[in-house]
Design brief:
The protein has 205 residues and is an alpha+beta fold. It is 24% helix and 30% strand. It has 4 helices and 8 strands.
C-alpha cells in the first residue's frame, strides 16, 4: 500500500498485530500439488495513464501486506508472492498459501479476512496522527468464495492513501490480493478489483 515511504515503514511496524493461532502442520507436511498460478499484469485494474508491470513470482511473505496482514500466529506455510507496479503511484501484490487441508485453508482465509476487517482500528490504536477507515465490499461467488474490503488512511501531515484488499480460497489454497495508491474511496476501482479478485481465485488451478 503506497502510503509514502516514511509513513508506510512506520505504520507497517506498528500495525503488525498477533492473530489467533491456527493449528496446522508445517508447510512441508502438506500433500504435494501443482503450484498455484498468479495474476498477470493485464489482469490488474486498468490504470488510466500507465501500464502495469509484473515482477517475478518470489518465495516469502511480501512486506507490502504487513500493514494489515502478517504471519504472526500462523503456521510456517510456504508463502509465494508477486508484485506489480505502474510508472506512477499505484502498486499491487498477490500472495498465495497452500495449507495442508481444505479446513486449514478455510481457517486461514478467515484469519486473514479478520485481520483486514480490523486493520483500520489497529492502525488508529497504534499510530497517533493517522485516521483510518475500512469498508466491506462484499463476497464474490468464485470457487470457495472471496471477500473484498477497502482501507483508507489519512495522516496528520497530509498523506492520504486508499487500498483494496481481498481474500479468496480454492480448496487448500488461499490467495490475498492488494491494490493501492494515493487517494480516497472515490479513487478506488472497486468493480475492476472485484473482477481481478475473481480472476485471481479462478486462475489458481
Amino acid at each position: 500500500m503506497p502510503i509514502r515511504t516514511s509513513a508506510l515503514t512506520a505504520l507497517t511496524i506498528a500495525a503488525l498485530a498477533a492473530g489467533t493461532v491456527l493449528t496446522a502442520p508445517a508447510a512441508g507436511a502438506a500433500p504435494k500439488t501443482a503450484a498455484p498460478r498468479f495474476l498477470s499484469a493485464s489482469q490488474l485494474p486498468p490504470h488510466p495513464t500507465s501500464s502495469w508491470t509484473a515482477g517475478p513470482v518470489t518465495g516469502g511473505f511480501p512486506e507490502e501486506l504487513g500493514l494489515c496482514v502478517s504471519t504472526e500466529g500462523v503456521p510456517a506455510y510456504e508463502y509465494r508472492h508477486r508484485e506489480f507496479r505502474t510508472e506512477l503511484d499505484t502498486s499491487a501484490v498477490q500472495l498465495t498459501v497452500v495449507a495442508g487441508t481444505a479446513a486449514q485453508a478455510e481457517a486461514l482465509a478467515k484469519h486473514y479476512d479478520d485481520l483486514i476487517r480490523t486493520c483500520a482500528d489497529r492502525i488508529e490504536e497504534s499510530s497517533p496522527g493517522v485516521e483510518a477507515e475500512g469498508r466491506d465490499y462484499g463476497r464474490l461467488p468464485v470457487e470457495e468464495g472471496a471477500r473484498v474490503r477497502g482501507l483508507h488512511t489519512e495522516t496528520s501531515w497530509g498523506a492520504t492513501d486508499i487500498a483494496l484488499l481481498s481474500v479468496g480460497r480454492d480448496g487448500r489454497t488461499v490467495t490475498v490480493v492488494q491494490w493501492g495508491q494515493m487517494g480516497d474511496f472515490g479513487d478506488a476501482p472497486v468493480a475492476a478489483f472485484k473482477k481481478t479478485t475473481t480472476t485471481a481465485v479462478d486462475k489458481l488451478y
